[in-house]
Give the backbone structure.
Amino acid sequence: MITSLLRWLKHFFQPPPAAKLDLKRRGLIVGGIAGVSSAFLVRSSALGQRRTFSPELIRPPGATAEDDFLARCIRCGECMKVCPTNAIQPALDEGGIEGLWTPVLKMRLGYCEYECTLCSQVCPTQAIQRMHLEDKQKIKIGLAFFDRNRCLPYASARTCIVCEEHCPTPKKAIWFEEVQVMTPERTLTTVKQPRVNPELCTGCGICENKCPITDMRGVYITSVGETRHPKNQPLLDPYAS
Amino acid sequence: MARPKTTWPVWLRRTSQSAFLLLFFYFFLQAVYRPINQTGRGVDFFFQLDPLVLLSSVLASHKVAAGLSLSLLTVVVTLLAGRWFCGWVCPFGTLHHLISSWRSARVKERLTVGGYSRWQRSKYYVLFALLVGCVFGLNLTGWFDPFSFLYRSTATIIFPMANDAIGSFFGWIYQTDPGIGPAKVTSVSEPIYEVLRRHFLAASQPHFYGTTLLVLFFAAALFLNLYRARFWCRYVCPLGGLLGVIGKNPLVQIKQNQEVCNDCRLCVADCQGGANPDSAGGWKPSECVYCWNCHSACPHHGIVFAIHVPGGTK
Amino acid sequence: MADCSRRRFLHACAMTGAALKLGPLALNAATTSGPALSIARYKTSPQAPEAIAEEARRLTQEAVNGLGGMGRFISRGDVVWIKPNIGWNRRPEQAATTNPDVVATLISMCYTVGAKRVIVSDNSCNAAPPSFAHSGIQQAAEKAGAECFILDERKFRKTALQGKVLQSWDVYGDILGVNKLINAPIVKHHGLCKATLGMKNLMGVVGGERNRFHQDLSNTVVDLATFIKPTLVVMDAVRVLTANGPVGGNLADVQRRDTVAAGTDQVAIDAFGATLLGLKPQDIGYIAEAHNRKLGTMAFETLKPRRIEI
């Protein structure tokens, strides 16, 4: 039994002619060059080596730093299937061609549920790191910004504040100031104008998701402030809080 | 010539393929919210079986994700017995197989179509390019890995479409509520719909960006089977390539009875992998997916697979 | 029978896409008269989880019994929708959703007096499956024998509300097939309108772009409350959320009030709920609006509420 196995092992490395892989050196050289050059092409692109950051490249919470993420993610779409809000979407060019079909969050379709870690639980390669809920709730995936030209209490003298209502952080990251503004009828009215506290905002995007300005929201998330990258930060000391 | 009856190994293989395809969809549906903040079991089972996922992520990120070591089982089985995984387990392979078998008889009659083509090398080059990319930190394996391809397409195309179609159908019945007198169709359709909603359908209809591109690639991979049986598995699949490399000289080998062979080449016409089952000494184990179609197709029962220990009886 | 033909009429309207020309939703009111408001309060504030559950059960029973018992509202064969607040993916201790033991007790009481079916559901703000499960309401409701399901997007139908600002809106179709509705809100803080109480809880039976309501919340909430008019309101104030509402999440913002109130006057019970948060009823827009439209009275003390101390 053992001798026949050894014989077979010997045979495996010296197969008969028909069993040999029908490979040509030229094909392997072309394949190798394609592999190396694509890697360096990606590194030399604008997004490569984190020279610039894509505002729309909002990764699921727990995603590793971009280089490591691209080394792990197999674009299988498990996170897209499991996401209970449908927020996780296959990227087109948000992360360059090398990011095609990797997961990005689109807050207009869904948002990151504060009490949820499902995407990290299903990821087969841990490109999204498995973690406890309490740790996930500390992760920032981006940061919310108000567009004062579109947000109703700023632009239209109407009350609204749906964003503040939905904000899930224990102390709300969206706060508001009561301001007297002029209505189109030239009367004064008091509205609540929302602001973002960047230290508390996790970038979950429920504000953008629930904003009633349906096409281009009055509040939106960009990737800046994301915990996974120390260079993509707006604040003096992002890790202070 | 009348086609011989399908033999039992083929039925066994079909059973296995059906079971794993169903298992794939079962595990797919498990990837859903369960109380509290959990998913169902086995959601990444097929990825755990996939040595290409393990190899590429180790090469690219220098880290092993826990759970992927199950794929070593696939490696051992392939090393000893050949690419059975492609023919008996892989759900993407099963889909290709299914569509390949829909090819018209006219295409099949061009008997040489099933034979080996030198272009089948390309999958090894694809594999090599991907792995070299991984060594330099760029992991694009997911574009071509069969489980990633199938899961991604199911999640973003098939499932949303099926979910919408089923929901719309029952919604239409609900809205029109046809029936005769007090007997209403909804009294039957609504309970069925509730069961579907609980166990199969999404809690709310999923929508995805960029489905055009996704569906173009998926449809292309499926339709190319009409040109060559298992086109994807033969020419493109890097996992097939990897298993071909691993299983290039397995213990399970083809045995052809040259005395009964009259060169009818029916075995070649039905061959899923382009592995030259007709050729004495020319059979290509790296291309064979052990579907046993050749065994079933041979009118003279001249082909069988058996354990072959080299150095023994030659 | 009236319900049956009404349903068929609704189907016909849904097919033609026409908005309905109907008056306020004809949910059956209480069968007999009795007190309009009953407030049950625990004098102690137990801390053990099982003791809090027992407290919620006792308070719910006593509050409803204070109005004359569930038999006053639910008759044999009734189809009842209990509408708790399941708006958020939060656990019961965070007081963003109705106490599950209050809901379970209501279900049992309905079945005891002969209800045919009891349905528990809400149109959640967070994703529905996590909200239903995490709030504990799904498990509690199913254990008590109710049907607890996520609302079905197909069943919202454009319905004529003929309100002051809401002419027509998507209302959940199946609510039109139930003949009793028990509104079971929780008392909590709300950034925009100061407090989320009973009438605002009715936003959970409508669909569509509810995020537009906030531009005139007082009128939209009262339009809904005028149209829907629940048979009974049972208000959970075992725990109340005093800040960062309506989502909450910080246990420091949760306080015990150890109270459950039950009533038939939506405005009065909301007015009482407001006082639990230290607010004046007239400062809450929709309470003042409802009072002005004579939907009820915010001077709840004039109803001589029955107070039960345990």
Confidence is low (pLDDT under 50) at residues 1-23 of chain C. The first helix of chain C runs from residue 2 to 16.
